[in-house]
Amino acid sequence: MNPAGGELLLFQVGTRVFGAAVDGAVRIGNVRDVPAEALVVETALGPPFARDRGIVVSPRQGEERTLVVDQVLGFRSVGADEVQPLPAFARACLSSTALTGFVMMDDAPLLLVDLPTLVRERS
Amino acid sequence: MADPKPPDPRDPSGASAEAWFFCLRLLGGRYAFDAPLVIEVVRLGPLTRLPAAPSFLPGVFTHRGEVLPVLDVGQLVGQGAVPLRPSTRAAIVHCGPWKVAVVSEAVEGLVAIPRRQLEPPPAESSGVAEFLSAVGRDRSGAIAVLDLPRLVEAARARAVPAGSGA
Lengths: 123, 166
Prior knowledge:
By secondary structure, chain A is mainly beta. Chain A has one domain (7-110). Helix content of chain A is 11%, strand content 47%. Chain A has two helices and ten strands, in the order ββββββββαββα. The longest helix of chain A has 7 residues, at 115-121. By secondary structure, chain B is mainly beta. The longest helix of chain B has 11 residues, at 148-158. Classes of the chains: A mainly beta, B mainly beta.
């Protein structure tokens, strides 16, 4: 997520809702017609339940991959002052560098994800 | 008996007859650590769980607009989790570069222990004993003194480092 803020794509994996910068997503689509080798199903975000939707991600290097999610919930604009980095201790302990920070949504922290990093970690 | 006075900042040498600690109830016992590490005590409130997190990092919560990580000492030492509820109390501490909220079963607050009653910890090197710097006793009973900076650093070191591919 750009620390200056921007547009977020909100999506759900399992029971959790995440946000990601929209410029990390190429498009949103169905997963049925995507070859299995192009799907990214289990990531640091955990396994999806319904596996209904896909977020096509360009991992900066290599071919596009489709991140399988349960729902795409919509978009939201956030200001720079709404974005908080991951606390240093949490960043040092997590097994994924794709989790980058938070924005407050309905008084609760919404976890921000860097989509290209997330799919690259599973490549 | 008068309430204990807070530590005198003019006496950082520890030359006084009493040592001051901040005491929590954890793992069914009384555990304390150096009082100056504590910034404040808060109720946890709603916890946001983090994916890809070790068990001793059950999540984060928001306090005055700041997102803080929660450290469960019980999980770290393999002796069971502290029950987490919105009413659970935590001590926000600064340990070197890390700012974390240590969850507890209850908070006692500042305690004074006569220095002559502080003894070396038992020689055990497993579980929470690994992180004890002393044991002591006050009017309410026995207290185990944690080396909290070492414990927090051990937690960080035990986590799977990001980017390791694990």
